[in-house]
Amino acid sequence: MTTTARPGFDPELKAGLAIVGGVFPPTITPDLIAFMRKSYASPPIADTLRRRGIVRRDEVIAGHHGDAIEVSVLTPAQANGPRPCVLFLHSGGLIFGDRFSGADLVLDWVDQLGTVLVAVEYRLAPEFPDPVPREDCYAAAEWVAASAEHLGVRPDRLFVAGASSGGGLAAGLALAARDRGGPHLCGQVLDYPMLDDRGLTRSTHQFDGIGVWDRVSNETGWTALLGDARGGADVSPYAAPARATDLRGLPPAFIDVGSAEIFRDEAIAYADAIWNAGGDAELHVWPGGFHAFDIFAPHTVLAQGMIRTRNAWVEKILVD
Amino acid sequence: MQELLGRISALDPRASLSLRVIACFDELIVGNVNTRALLSAAASLAGCNAGFSQQLPPRAMRVTTKGAIVPGPFSPAAGSSVCEGGVTAWLERDGAQHVNDAIILERLLLALRLRHGHGRRDSDHRRELGLLLDTEAPIADRHTVASRLNLSLTGRYRVLAAPLFAVWHSHPTCVEDVVATPYGSIHALVVPESHDPVDASPCGIGLPTGVDKLDRSFRTAIVALRLCLPPHTPVVTADTYGALIGLLADLPDRAAVPDLDALDSVMAHPWGPATVDVLIQAGSVRQAARLAGVHHSTLQTRVDTITEIIGFDPLDGLGRSRLGTAYLCWRLRNSRVLDLPPPTGGRSGGD
């Protein structure tokens, strides 16, 4: 038995883990990637969208090196005039998931706040290592900016949102867009983002074998992306934004994370670094929250608080 | 969470969803969450609204799958509601009942009654196994419970202990429940002493006792469970370890055990665990070398190293017992058998 001190799980969430553990084991080793691709595949999207009054159009665009990747453009059925647009980058540790994984939460922005949502099928590691996933996302951002008129979106109301690995990709995209003079982003939503390949924080070592996404799972994801470069000197801040030394001039950031997950410390550190660089960040640490608890247990009081708080920020940034 | 339950059964049709539902409500009960949280968990598990009402004082609440309160009264259909002691719980199910509805309602009602101050002892038979296995419970109460559970006061029984995620190839028909322990929620079953061997992985089988010592049988079953090493050793019977199992069951988790720190250093060697294991089994260095599949002189070198680290000869007299005891303590401290393993099918079913 370990003697590591760590915050306990919120009681409602702890109960949820009895169910979640059946599809999402705490410790994901490389030999479980194939299983996770099945167990974390998103449920059929068509019914969800019909119920919500959201129209979907799939497009094939040029990803990294011009390779074809798929995106879905989700538009409120009653859209009139150019809308704000969110580029959504899904969760799944860089190694599993698809563009609709965890999308239920961001669909609220489409049917309740009237945004257009572009969900990106970025390619996954280890088959497609760095820089493919992040450059697929960057290419999608450029495509949205260039197709604003065609998509019915306002180029001055484009923002990026992602959860977990998608949060890390979103943060990397914001850095890259700043440095390359790319699309102007008006905000970045980083839900419990996967920012740091080095695995050195205290929280990374606090939750071995429990909850959702532990230290070993994280090593599995980062190693799939970076191979031997993981933890070394040559990792790009666009891949692992925790390595960025210059956080000036970034779009306003919304960062949320659970206190009982390995990404707690890197999320807090990223918000702190943005503030120290004179930037705008809103940080929420939800007590007793395990990784992605809003996706797995949205019925709980803690998840409802997290979702409400995030939606309020998005509304503040986006809605006229 | 209904969607998650669907995924679990799609990935593994043999998975026991009802045990996961039980474990979920057990944590809600232990966490002492409020009525709304209980109803939202039930609604989320069922995929439809859940509600409750009580007569005294009059109170009712309905909650959606997203945990939102639904205003207004509701008259539950008989088939999708349960009622006991003035408390009614229901699921607002359109159409036919789902396979998990009954267990969700049963556990919801139990949790609501506990939350609203109806004690465990007045009329609730389902939770009584926990009392029977509780060292602190008065013997007279345990006898009452045993009678209600149809256990003979003169019979001898064993408690089986398994994690909720254990795989059962054949499931005994017997008294069973999920019981909170310092190691988390444990699935406990009481079978007659002469019960056939169980085919489950992992599972610990406790020492046989009379009904008023079942708490001790349970504790030895948990030690046995923690000594399991599936798939190689899926089941451990407490009897195998004779008197040692009782000592181990009584040993506090963080107790200082002489020889254990030294053994930790031995185990840090890549050859440590396998070598100690064969030394425990074998009668001589030569036999141990054969079991380990290494040359006699290689094993002798390792024994010399071990002797140097632990400060006594592990093959001589009392040294054998000291090594054996320290080894069992080391295995208990390093047991991962209660960690939820990858979902079944995870390693074989990927495509």
TrEMBL record, chain A:
Coiled coil: none annotated. The keyword Hydrolase applies. GO terms for molecular function: hydrolase activity. Keywords: Hydrolase. Residues 86-293 form the Alpha/beta hydrolase fold-3 domain. It comes from the Bacteria. This is Alpha/beta hydrolase fold protein. It comes from Amycolatopsis methanolica 239. The lineage of its organism: Bacteria, Bacillati, Actinomycetota, Actinomycetes, Pseudonocardiales.
TrEMBL record, chain B:
It comes from the Bacteria. InterPro entries: PucR_C-HTH_dom, PucR_C-HTH_sf. Residues 275-327 form the PucR C-terminal helix-turn-helix domain. Pfam families: HTH_30. It comes from Amycolatopsis methanolica 239. This is Transcriptional regulator, CdaR.
